[in-house]
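Shipment paperwork, digital attachment
Item: protein structure file
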Amino acid sequence: MKDKIRRGGGRNQAKTDLIRGKNAVGVKQDDDTSITVKIQGAGIESFELQVHGFWLVQDALMNLLSRAEVCPRSNLSLAFASTTLDPLAELQSLKGLKPGAIIRLVEEPYTASSARHHLARVVELLRASGPQDALREGRSPSLLETLTHQTTGADPSLPNGKSLKRSLSNTKTDSTNQDAAPPEYLLPGSTERPLMALLPPSSQPEAPSYLKDLCLSCWNPPPGHRKLQGDFLYISVVTMEGKRCDITSCPKGFFLNRSTEDVFDPRPAQSSPLCHCFTDLLCHLSPAFKKTLTTIKNRPQLPPAEVMPTSYHTLSWLGPRGASRTHKNTFSRLGVDEQATPDWNEELQTARNLPQGSLEERLQRDRAVLQVNSAFVTAVMQGAETVVDGFVEPVNGNPEDPAFLWGGLFMSQAAASAVFGGERGRRAAQRLELKGVQAYSDLEGVEGLHTLPTAIVDYRGVRLSAQGLAPGLEGTEQDQDQDQETTPASRGLLYGVNAGPQESPHRRRLLALLAHAAKCLALQRHVVVAPSGYKVPLFTPVDSQGLLGADGRFYILDVFRCFPADVNFCPETESQIVTREEERKEMKEEDEEKKGGIKEGWPENYHIVSGLPKSFPHGLCRLRPELVQAFIQHKHCQFTLRVREMLDENGGFEECATACDSRSTNAVRAACKEVGSSSDIIFEIRLNPNVFSPGVSFPPSERASVNQQERLLKEAAAFIITHQIPGFVEHCLLNYEAPMDGASLKQALHQRGINLRYLGHVIKAISQSEHKEHLRHILRLVVGEVFIRSTRRVFNSFLQGVDVPCLCAAVSHFLCCLLVPHFMPAHVGEETKKKSKRRGRGAGASESTPWSTLIGPELWNLVCQDATETYNISDSLGSGPNHLVERYGLQKLSLLREFCLKTGVQLRLRDYYLDNQTKAPIGPDDILNIFPVVKHVDMPSVDASKAYRAAHNSIQKGLLDQAHEHLTEASYLFGRVCDDLHPEACHCHSLLAKVAFMQGKAAEARSVQLKAVVISERVLGFDHPNTIQQYTLLGVYMYAGGETALAQKCLLRARLLLLTVHGEDHPYTATLDSCLGLVLTGEQAGQFLKNALRLNTSFFGATDLHTALNQHLMAQWMCSKGDYRSAMTHEKEALTAFTSLFGHDHHQTICSKEFLCTITKQAVQVERSLRQAGADSTEQTVECLTPSTETSLEQMVLLTGIRNITQSDRFQEYKQKHLERKAAALKELGLKLPSELVASETVKAGEKNLDKETGCGKEAEDGGSPTAENNSERQHESVEEVSVVGAAAVSVNGHVVEPAEQNKHEEKTENREEGDRATEVKMVNGVSEVRAAGEETESSVEKEVKSSTASREMEAGATCAQMKSDEKDGQSNGVRDTKATPSVLKSKGTWADVVSKSNIANGTGHKDTAVNGVADKVTANGAAEE
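Attachment content:
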C-alpha cells in the first residue's frame, strides 16, 4: 500500500486506491492489489481467502484467526513455498504470490503465556455473548436487530415486522403491519411512559450449554518435576454427559491425563490424542460438545458492528429484568482472565512513537494508540472498583490523600487544598488535569513532548485520578549515591519554578517543544518569581513540570491550570508584583485607585446587569479552549475593523495599501495595541495562564504585560455573558433539532465555550427573553441539569456514610426521597428490616443509620442549597419534585435517567410509578449495580477525520460525487482504526447515507444507515438523542425502499425514545409526528399531524414557515378524507403565513393561492354531487384527493433534513466579480471575452425556463423517483452546492426556497439583509430554478446550456475564505450543518414530476404550479441561516 501511494500519481490517486481495498458501504469492491489465495493446514478444511498486497503477514494471520473455519485456534504462523513468513513482511513483497497460491497454516509450539491465551480464546467462544449479557455488564445494547426481527404478532408498539435482511435487494413493499395501530402510550397526548418497551426481549436464542464445568484442576499448578517435563496447566472438565476429565497443557498442545479427584497421575491416558487446539480434544471427549460447537459455528453471523467490542464502556442505566436470579459467570474459574501487570506509560509511548511516514503506518499507529488507551481505561474501571471496594491497601500513610498501586496504575484522590476550595477544588483539579493532558496530546508537530496516560473515574461517590506509572528520572540512582546535594537538573527535572537555573542541550530541546506547544495553545511566555527568588521564564502554568525520564523522553506534568483563569469567578485574586521599596509607594497609590476596581476592564454596568464577578465554591475556574478560540476570532474582527477605520481616516484603504509610507504600518501597530495583541506588528493574541492565579508573583518588568493580560481576561470573561450565552439562546430559538437531554445540552454549551457553571446565567437569559415561551424546552433542560448536578454532589456525600451491605437500600431510599413528594422513610426502614430478618441477615438497617433518617424535604433543601451556591439560582427549583413537573414540564422518568447516567446506578428493567406515596416506588431489589463512570483522553483518527472534513468541503461546493468518495474513504479509515465503533464514525456513516440518498442510491443509503444506527446505539447509548435522529433517518430510507411497515416502526421507536428522554413538548417531536402523519393512514395520521401543527405553532408561531408547512399537510390530509371545507381552512392559514413571510407576489404565495382555488373548486363539485345525490335519493361517495407515495417521500426528506438546497447572494457576487476581473484581464491582453461568460452573467448561475423544466412528464410516468435514479454524472456537471446535512429546508410538497430572515428576527438581521438574501430556488422535475431579486428568467435552451457551463467554471473559483465562512454553521447529530450555494439537480424524475402530472394528487393541474410551500432560506431546524 505504501508503494501504491507513492506510485499512484498524487493524493487523489492514493485515496482512490485506498478506498478500493475496503468494503466501506456493504458492497464488495475490488482492489488491483487484492488476490485470492488458498488456505490449508492446521487440521482444517481448505478454503479461499482474499488478501490485499498492502497487508502485512500478521494482518493476514489476524484475519484468518477471526474466521469461523479457524476460530478458536491460535499460536499459528503462515508458510508459503515451504518457508515460514516474517510477520512484519508485506504480502506484495513475497515472490511468487499470485491468485490461487497455497498458504499453509503452521502450528507453533505453545509457551506458558500463549497456552493461557489460547484458553482465553476458547472461553471467549464458549461464552458466546447472549442477548442480555450487554445489560448485565452495564453496556448499552444494540436493539435494531431485535426490533426488526420480531414476529408479526408481536407488540405493535415496538418497531417489529418481517426479518430485516441485510441484503440490498430486499426493498419490496412490506404491508404486513402497515395498518397496525400504534399503542396508546405512543399517541399524542399520552402521559404513560412504559420502560418495558425500551428494551424488548431479544429475538436471538440464548447461548447453548457446552460443558457443565471448566476450571483449573485441583492438581494445578504442576509440581517442579512436571514443569521440567513441559506441563503448563492442569485443567478439569465436566462434560454434558457427566464425565469428568483432567487435561494437561504442554508445548505441543493438550492431552487427557490419568488424574482423578483423588489420585494425581499426569501420564497421558491411553488412546488420548495430542491436539494443538483445545476444542479438538473436547470434541473427541464429548459428542454433545462436538454437536453444539458445530451448531454455534454454523449459526448466522451478526454484522461486525453488533458483535465487536467497543473501545470504551457505554453505560446502560437499565439492566435485565431478572438479573438477580440469572447470574452466570461461566468458566471464570479457569483463571485465564488474569493478566500480567503492564507498564501503561511504556505501552502508550511506544504506540505513539510508531512511524507515521505513510498512510498505512499512520493507520497502524492510530489503531495501536486507541487499543492501548482502551485497555488502559478498562483497567481504570476495574481498578476503581477494586480500590473503592477495599481490596487494595494504600501505599502511603496519609489517610486524607491515600494513594494506591494496582495493575500498573497509580490511583489517588489528590490532596484537598484550601486554596482551591477543598473537595470541590480537588475534583476540579482532577478534571482539569485530564483536559490539559487532552490538549497537549492533540497538538500536532510536538511529537517529542509526552504526557502520561490519564483518566478519572467516579465510583460510589469517590473520584479517583488514574495515571500510568511515570518513568524514573534520568540519573536518580547515580546522583543519590554520589552526592546528596544533587541539583534538580541532574535528577531529570529540567523545567518548572523548582528546577532552578540550569543550561543543557536537553533543557533547550524541552524549551523549544514547550514554546511550540504554547503557540498552539495561545499561551503567552512570561516570567514569574520562584519561591527561591529566581526569575523563571515559563510557557506553562506555574504548577507544571518538565522532566527527562529514564526512558529518554520529555514529559510535561501537572497541567491542570494550562487554560486561562475565568475572571468572572475569581474576583478576589489579584496578580502579585514583587517590587522594590521605592516602587511600593507608587504601587500602593495605583491599588487605591483600583479599589472598587471591579469596574475596571469590564463593560459598562457589567456588574449590575450580570452580578459578576463573584466567588465560586472552588478556585479553579478556567476558560474552555473553545471559548479561547472564539474570543481570539472576536478580537481579530475588532482588529481588522479598527485597521480599516484608521486607514479610511488617513486617505482610504486603497490609497494607504498602495502607498509606500508608514500609514498602513502605524494603523496595524495601533490596532494591535488596542486589541491587546502580544505583538505590535502582527495580530497575535496570547493569554497568560498564571494571571489571577493565587500564590503567583511576577517581577516588576512584567507589570505592563500583566495589566494587559488582566484586561484581556476580563474581556474574555465578559465575552461569555455578552456574546456566547445570547448566541446560544438565539441558536436554540432558531434550531429545530435542539438539545434533548443533559448530554446534548452539555455538548451544545461546550461547543460555544460556555462552562456548565453558567447554567444559572443561561436560565436568566432565557427568562428575560421575549421568546421565553418558545424556549421552554431549553429552559426545562437547563433547570433539569442544574437539579441533577446538584443532586449528584449531595449523593456523593450521602454515599460516604453508607456501609457496603446497605448500598442498595440506601440508593433506593435516596431516589424515593428525591422523586416522591412527602415520602416517609420509616416505611423503607421497616421493610428493609423485615426483609433482612426473613433472609437471616440480622436486624438490617437500624433507624439510627444516617442514611435511613433522610427525608424528602431535607434532601430537597440540600439540593437547593447546592444549586444556589453553584449556579446562583434561588427559587427555580421550588419546594419539591412536583414543582419541577408543574412549572417546567420536567418528567420524573427523565430525571431518573439523567441521575443514573451521571452516577453509574443501574436499575432493573420494569415500569416505575414515581407518584406512589404509600409504597416505595423503587426498592432495594431494583438497584442492580453501581458502575464506574470514566472520563478519558480521546484518541483521534487523524486521516479519517481529514477525509471527513474534506467531504464537508465537497458538500459545500455541491460536489456530491467527491463528497461520496471522501466519505467512503473516511468510513474505511474509521473501520481500520476503530472498527467503526466511534461517535465520529457514526456521524460519517449517517452523512454518507444522506449523500448516497441524494445521488439516488436508496439501497446503499439504507444499508449504511443500518450501520449508523447500530454504532449509535452501542457507542453513544440506545436512548441517546443521536440514536433518535438516526432511527428517524432510517425510517425515511425504509419508506423510500417501499418498506412502509419497517419505516413506521423505526419512527415509532424514535418517538418512544424521545418521550422517555425528554417528553412530548419538543420541536423534534413535530418532525417525528409529521413523518408519522405521512406514513400512517386514516385517523392515526390526523392525530400526529394535528399534534405536529400544535407544537410548531407553540414553538415558532402561527406565521412561521414550519407552521405553514404543517397547515398545508393538514389540508392535504383533509383532502384525502374528502373534507374540503376543513382543508380550505387550513390552506387559508398557510396562505396567510406565506403572505406574511414573502408578500403577495412571491412564488410560494401564488402556489398556495392556486392550491386553495383547486380545493375550493373541488369542494363546489362535491357540494353539487351531494345535492344531486339528495335529489336522486341515492348515496354518493365523495372523491378524495390522496397524495402519491413520491410526494410523501419528498416531504419526509425535507422535514428530516436530508435535502437542503439554498442560494447565497454572496457566492453569486463573488462569481460576478470573478467574471468582471477575468473580462478585464482578457481585455488588457487584447482578447475577446467568450460569449459563454457574457451569457452566464445574465443567467446568474442556473436560471432555467419554467416551461422547459415542467416538460418531463414522461420520466415521471416511467416511475422516476429521487431515490431510484443514479444521476451522479449529470449531477457532478451541474451541481454548484447542495447541503444534505442536518438542517433540511422546509417546503410544502417539495419546493424549497429559504428566506434570508424571518419577521420575528428582522431587526437583528437587517444589516445583513442585502448581502445574505437568498434567491428563490424552485425544484421542478429535479431541476432547480434560481431567480435573483429583480432578474428575468431566460427562456432559451441555449442560455440554459451556457449557464451550466459558466456554473462549472465558477465552481473552481471558490476561495478559502468562502469555505471557512460556510463552516461556521451549527451541528446536527454531531455533524456540521453545511450551507451551499444553489444546485441544479438534473435527475430525470422526482416527486415533482408526479405532482405536476396529476391534478388529483396535488389539487392543481397547472404545469407551472407548485402546490407545495417554497420558502426562502429557512432550514428544517427552524433556523434562519446567515
